[in-house]
Amino acid sequence: MRVTIDLPLAVDRECPVPLAVQVADQLREAMRTGRLRAGERLPSTRALAALLRVSRTVATDAYQQLYAEGWLDGRHGSGTYVADEALPYEQPTEQPTEQPTERPAEKPAEARGSARREPPPPGTVDLRAGRPWVFGYDTAAWRRAWRSAGDLALNAFPDPYGHPELRELLADHLRRARAVPVGAGNVMVTRGTGNGLDLIAATLLGPGTRAGVEEPGWRAARRIFALRGAEVVPCPVDEQGVIVDALPDDLRVLYTTPAHQFPVGGRLPIPRREKLLAWARRTGAIVVEDDYDAEFRYDVAPLPALYGLDPGRVVLLGTLSKSLGPDVGLGWLVAPAGLLDAVAERRTHLADRTSGPVQRAVATLLERGDLDRHLRRMRLEYARRREAIVEVLGPYVRGDTAGLHVMVTLPADVVPGLVRRAGERGVLLDTAEPHHIGPPRVHGLVLGYGSASRADVRRGCAVIRELIPPAEA
Ligand SMILES: Cc1ncc(COP(=O)(O)O)c(C=O)c1O
């Protein structure tokens, strides 16, 4: 237990912000960025007051605010500590260096266009869907993986299927984790789900073809299909997933998320899976199974992937974007051998490939069990964050006990005002409406807990709870 007395705190008496708020803000920032770590002891209010030359009330008020927000912990009746759960894993001690440039600070994120999602300003609670916790990995394992990549000679002729040893490792991972009876010959290494989906679209779609996407569903899927010239057909989902009886017979491809429907959160039950595959066999459609967050289930084991039920009709897409982070740029595409060859040929024509060093680094993480260890830790952490949401917003929460987001259903007329007021209080939210192509059928928040600490998740949910009008409570 280290006593923290050397924090570079300062107060500005000329500033209109109350002194206690100034002190709380600086401490919060130090905890958020990892300068103060879980379990570290803070000075007593008396010592802090003396250090900053402020009254003891200022120090007490600052601590009380941080206790209320879940950042601090009192133990054995004496001493003030950074709460264990405020920083469950190592965070960087400085802000990421690759901050996007040209950022007009005064504009909300939505007004800056959708091409770039920027890190939120410090002090905000980011509960938008889609982002994982990128501070949780074991840095020693990560460096080791990159050293192994550095030992690799560069290849002048990258293999469009990917490195053979990584394909083997991924096939092994899929057999164990997803009950997919697959050999390396059916696996292609991609840069992620979006890349895999685009390769499928480039191979199977084009003008005159129709491609189904879930409604509501992942926006990137519909954009990719449209950019490859297909007519995009919205296919409605209910709380269990895609509604097979509503599927038209003339789809070339259907994109679906059976393990954890995005964004509603259902898990497609076995009878519906069988019905879906019967539909695909009857119509000749290829089912593209996006398995994006299947590693994260917190109650029961995940259902085996759809691919295993009919490897002739299904393409399985996986990614490290949720388990490690989208910055890694690595995923996999599993397909019947004939289709995989067609995709590889199209990939060569497109001069598209996955970085060799990235493949080597990921192979090392798999070989040494580092990825499995990371997943086990993150599963625990995400489960706790999800529980924190359910504790506060339980009656509104929909979706399986899985993944990195929940659906919080609310009446349509409540949503815009709630999102705006939460934004004014520093809580960033996503809604279900933009995930539709047609008129929205599902209303509410798509609440992500991937990129906010547990303390932030609690704070954000408390704000949301306060903003739900009493009539809906
Ligand atoms: C439904 C869904 N699938 C897949 C992904 C990941 O895509 P990629 O692997 O291209 O980063 C995301 C990321 O937000 C997603 O929401």
Task: Describe this protein's structure.
- The strands form four sheets. Strands 5-12-11-10-9-6-7-8 form an eight-stranded mixed beta sheet, with helices on both faces. A three-stranded antiparallel beta sheet has the order 1-3-2.
- The protein is 36% helix and 13% strand.
- It is built from 13 helices and 16 strands.
- The protein is globular.
- Helix 4 (139-150) packs across helix 10 (356-367) and helix 11 runs parallel beside helix 13 (454-467).
- With 473 residues, it is an alpha/beta fold.
- It has helices spanning 19-32, 45-52, 56-68, 139-150, 164-178, 193-204, 219-227, 270-283, 337-349, 356-367, 370-393, 415-424, 454-467; strands at residues 41-42, 72-74, 80-82, 125-126, 187-190, 210-215, 231-238, 241-242, 253-256, 286-290, 314-319, 331-334, 397-398, 405-409, 427-428, 444-448.
- Bound molecules: pyridoxal-5'-phosphate.
- Pyridoxal-5'-phosphate is lined by residues 130, 192-194, 218, 257, 262, 290, 292, 319, 321, 326, 331.
